[in-house]
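To: structure subgroup
Subject: Chain for Friday's discussion

All,

I'm putting the inputs and outputs inline so they're searchable in the archive.
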Amino acid sequence: MAESVFLGLDVGTSGVKAILVAPSGDVVASATSPLTMATPHPGWAEQDPEAWWQAALTSIATVRKRPGARIAAIGISGQMHSSVFLDRAGEVIRPALLWCDGRTTAECAEITSRVGGEERLRDLASNPALEGFTLPKVLWLRRHEPEAFARLATVLLPKDYIRYRLTGTLATEPSDASATLMYDTARLRWSEEIMRAVELPTTLLPDVGPSAGVLGRVSADAAALTEIDVGTPVVGGGADNACGAAGVGAVAPGEVVTSWGTSGTVLAPTAKPLVDPRLRAHTFCHVVPDMWYVMGVVLTAGGAFAWYQDQLARELAGMSDAAARLDAEAASVPRGAEGVTFLPYLQGERTPHRDAAARGAVLGLSLAHTRAHLTRAVLEGICFALRDSVTILQSLGLSPNHLLLTGGGAKSALLRQLQSEIFGLPVTTVNREEGPAYGAALLAAVGAGAFPDLATAVRATLSRAPLQVPDPNAHLDYAQPYVRFRQSYLAARPDLLAHD
């Protein structure tokens, strides 16, 4: 008899990942199909949802090659905020505006004004209006592409679009809904008040179900394309950051997880919807029922380092040891990169600046500096930006004893060391490196009845490495470079500097 496994899909910005997870928690197959991002203008970012679907089919086909495995349930994770615009026939109207798209500054101001100010918006959505969120994208479509807007019948998130293609069901769940600016995050419902204020019908929004609940079943058409059995349950799944937290076991208060993907996040689960009074961090629903989380976001973390590698280390392209070579370069330079500072705001910034117009910068260069200094400065700059978020969580009383590391920042000894020293906290990793796709697979296992709840699934499948404790003197060495980083923000906004 074929072994039952759980399929986890993650619709990321750089690729769609598929993994098969056994009831023991072991990953028995994994595949990623790459995606590209279009940037038609500076600060814009788009992808074609059809590309997500084709990449999902390719990744599913690859993992399906493992013999003797029967997919018992499917969970899906995906990039947050990004807008899929569907017409009444369920066809995509235009490319999706992504989470890192910064074109909607005017629409954010419009939303804040219409709702009655930022304080009222905080009460209704637990978040400010930011360019990356979904609602500003809908208003942008209405203002700039009225013919496309006239066709609009449904707004979906990326992972919900893949479930729609698998099942024909239009649905979402709280972790993604709470990141749209159209959801009352504290009261767990779509906000009719916000929708009335911006003159949009709630009929644009799908039904909301549980993250581990079955929200659809594989259709005959999808079964023919994927070779997955007709009727296989597909659970709600979750936003990538929430699923990523679940995938490393951060499902209860007291945990804090730092993740490097294209973006970077620092996330802390909470038992109530705790909101930063200054709105520097986000408050969203977790994939655990009646659980929320506070999160700081760096828009380009791994994305900033990938840009650096592509542009300034091209001779390493294609080398299997490229990352190790760059780590060795960075390790050869003292802490603080001998005065070189990198600001990783290549696509604007969320935390703490809430500034879509911010841009990256390298400061402090001299003829004595080498690429090794730049390499270290880029890595330190990303860590400094994440430290901003750790500091905000600490100001809210969410002071961790240690940090869980996942994603690109957990992959090398140097990156783990840098984070531990710059944050001044012990760090650890878990025995799974599949990120949000793993959390999605655990949700599928819960939905299929393999575990009674997510906490039980986490205890049964995850284990942690020993804590890596920072050298206190190393943390002190970073005090002045971190101050230098914080004071350099205006270099990312030269338009704000005074002119004679």
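Points worth raising on Friday:
The chain has two domains: 3-248, 302-429+470-496.
The chain has a mean pLDDT of 94.

D.
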